[in-house]
Protein: PepSY domain-containing protein
Amino acid sequence: MSKKKRSLFRRVNEWLHLWLGLTSGLVVFVVCFCACLWVFRYEVWYFTETYQRVEPQQKPFLAPSVLMKKAQDFAQKTEGKPVTLTGITYGRTDKSAFVSYQPSKEAYYAIYLNPYTGEIIHRKTGPSTAEAFFIFARSGHRFFFLPPAIGSPIVGSACIIFVILMITGLIWWYPQKWTKSTRAKSFTIKWGATWKRINLDLHNVLGFYALLVCMALTISGIVYSFHWFDKSYHWLLTGNTQSNAHGDEMPPPHSDTTLTARVYANPEDRIWQEVGGQHPDEVGKVSISFPKTLSDPYEVLINPEDPNIYKMYHRFFDRNSLAELPSEESRRYEDASTGEKIYRLNFDIHVGQIGGLSTRILAFFVSLIGASLPITGFIIWWNRGKKSSRRSGSIPDTSTALGMS
Structure:
């Protein structure tokens, strides 16, 4: 009996899935595989960068001026010259604090201290081994190991194609008729079959189960490759085209340059007290950046849910009067519109950290499946029309196979 002729729609769909997959497969593999590596960076840093951890104590952190004095004395002694401090950062109760400074115009170093005692723990002059590894992985994920201006649009284009592949793959996967046999082929892997059949099942079945999460990870990532996509996505959610994924945030407010005298002797301490009073509970991260010019304000980054960034916001204070300066960046997550809240979740969704360790594990496996799809799909294409040595386990031609290929 001859096979039922496939519709024009299905033939076009399968043609698109095949050739778009072949043209974008290498980039998709690198992007997804590097995403797997990136997912567990926090756990790796926790175990390898011991200087970032301290034993929690039942007492408050030392004031910024105290830690800054200890860090500056240590840095000047080490560098053999005066240094300019650029900021101070506090973490959770089990995290060390660090003071950053510039030994030269291009370099940024950091002194890590115990926030309870002021003990110097570590002087950091560059990325650790673990950081260097994840910087390398991120370069592959974001830029395909190319200069950003070249690699970013390549990765973004491959991600758009990947979205199309997931849609066409779902259409190809969907059986024209649901039977006991097609249900088994669609939802289970036949581990006892030939390697060709197992490869086909890995492509089809795993691709189906990972589809929704993989789609969310991919679309949220396109935001960082194309400015037009970011602005369109932001407009769709908020009605406003001004977004921040590509540096569209409002410029910081300016200090009053007509004022020349400081109101407080230790302005960092005053700002620290102000921020602490607004957050009586533990705060994930508070970073105070110092003014560089006469018009620069003190900029305070507050992230209650570190490492998640969706609740992160900034506050600005005049460098002399310490009067708080209004800014759009000071709007808290709780005060944002529904659309803005969804937009702020984008990064945490993309890297899989929105729900903590459980969603990072999910993102790891989905990214791993995403990396496998170009490989299993290529194998299906390469072996098209070839008969299996085991007659009972022969593989159907890819033109009639279920699933993504």
